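Structure ticket #2291
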Amino acid sequence: MSRLVIALGDPAGIGAEVCLRALGRLTRQRGPIDVLLVGCRRWLQATHRRLRPLIDGDFADPDNLAMLDLPLAGEVEPGHPGALTGDASFRWLDAAVAAVQAGQGKALVTAPIAKEHWHAAGHRLAGQTDRLAQLCDGADAAMLFTAVSPHSGWRFNTLLATTHIPLASVPSRLGPALVERRLTQLDAFCARFSPDPRLAVAGVNPHAGEAGVLGDDEQRWLTPLLEQWRRLHPGRRLLGPLPPDTCWLEAARAWHGIGAAAEAPDGTLAMYHDQGLIPVKLLAFDQAVNTTLGLPFLRTSPDHGTAFDLAGRGLARSASMEAAIVTALDLG
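Resolution: structure written out below.
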């Protein structure tokens, strides 16, 4: 089974546009791609009619694509989300997961949703990753961002220890058990590309605590945990805890083809959302793919949001969705 299942995200956003753009461009480059779209057929056809005159280049025709049709409960205007669109994106995600679990696809690709409008519809979750974990019997789902540099061909991987939680909640969520699990997940992913992955771990505090002067998390539990992990994995190269403000410098050099890529870590573990996502988006905004680890199937997603301000205008870039589809095809 080589089919991908694609959940089309919030119908008031750019999910449909970037999906049809990506499929059009990739079909020209790679040949036909077997997909099952999950959304509302009538809405998708209307989106195609509206945007086709505005699109300069490849744009897939939804009439030529397989679709699981789950009609919208009302009319949707591009750029005007609400409880209706939030509920639709939630239902479409659930149906897409069910399709993959039933063997109708080898991997799942998801277009962006808006958590605010999930909440407005009564679905009070932190995002798609949390819902995926629920639908997979409480799987230990983790968010990894992966990208292949167009400059050097080097693969850039960053995994988040904690994800969509307030910064004030991070210290209570972090601890040896969580970081050990995330480090093992990162190691397993990176081992797909390198037989001896070189991993880096960012510190929690500025300057990685600077010997306890700026925080004691590193001394109290993170450094002992990393020392224990090294003992249990004697063949692995593990760096850290590193000062977060310099942790990604070697990755940036490898991304731009400066110096030896072998000196850069194959994967970096960030302690919280913005610590990891700021370097990812600075280096690889159009190439990075949100990849969920810990599920019984591969899930990928572009690393951008719904962009309601661009919806319906034919201006959305599809590069990240293209990367998400290619990653699902190649790694699923």
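Closing remark: The chain has a mean pLDDT of 96.
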